[in-house]
Fold this sequence. Notes:
Layout: H1 3-14, H2 18-26, H3 42-59, E1 71-75, E2 82-85, H4 90-97, E3 100-102, E4 107-109, E5 114-119, E6 122-127, E7 133-137, H5 164-175, H6 187-201, H7 204-207, E8 218-220, E9 226-229, H8 236-245, E10 259-261, E11 268-274, E12 283-290, H9 299-310
Parallel strand pairs: 2-7, 9-12
Antiparallel strand pairs: 1-2, 3-4, 5-6, 6-7, 8-9, 10-11, 11-12
Helix pairs in contact: 1-2, 3-6
Amino acid sequence: MSKFRTAVLMQNATGMTYQSCRQSTLDRRSSHWVPVPDPWSRAQAHFEALVVHTLADQLRDRQLDGAVLGITAVDVRAWVPKLILHPTMASYVISLLLPHYDSEYGGVRGLPGARPVHSHGRLVIVDRLGDAAVELAMANAAAPPNPTPRPEMRADWRQHTMTAEETEERAWWESKGRPGFDKPVEQSILNAEDLLFSRLLRRPRIVNRVAGSHGFVNSYTHGTDLVLEWCCGVSHLEMRNLLDQSGLTHQIAHITPWNNLGADPERGTVIIERQEHSHSRSEPLLTLRSGQTCPSETPDERRQRMDAWYR
Ligand SMILES: [Zn+2]
């Protein structure tokens, strides 16, 4: 495979220009096996994984124009990845990501420990707990919206230090769903899962294909996994192939190869699971399910409902 082909794979996954992708291959940040550069540290991979879980779970099926996590493209030239937000979803996505205390819910919504930092017209979300960050940006270098507090919630992100609730929630997140919570967790397992989700975040142009038909997908998490369910358009098997070509699982330890449930090529489920030492049970990490029932709502009806949501 030539460098040319690697640059095209990177371009198709990120939405970056061909020239930038070509430069990435020349700089040896991209390879035939993993065309999109990986995060530079464990903390960075972990933070990016938390971004994926936070946005997927809160957006659910409210995406517009196929932006599964509210992200239309990504620029990974710098160490801090730049996530390009959907113009209408941007303001909402920013507020979903930042931590708010919801007294009715009795917990933190958003990403505990995330704080906005403004600098030279840029909006960077940094992790108070680690050396990690993501930049939230708009297409064509437009200024990103200022973060706004969510109604009837305490804007914890406005405080410099993490609140007690944030600290507690983050500790719970770090432990939830991890094998052997009561035992020392094997570091490589954490790395593996974080890298998988970080790579998904860095491949929005592939991930967004699941929402290509109707503009949205049903996205959710049980804590540390990710489920994407949709109806028509790209199939679960096509998604698996596209993600494989982009090196999604390359050299990630402690995960199972794709498990294919069902024989129908258009309707079914593919799952990547966490590999347990005992092999007696496995927990899903990434579930892609196609062939669900198409929505009865017309595109106009949905657009009206979403306009009210994003107002
Ligand atoms: Zn459909």
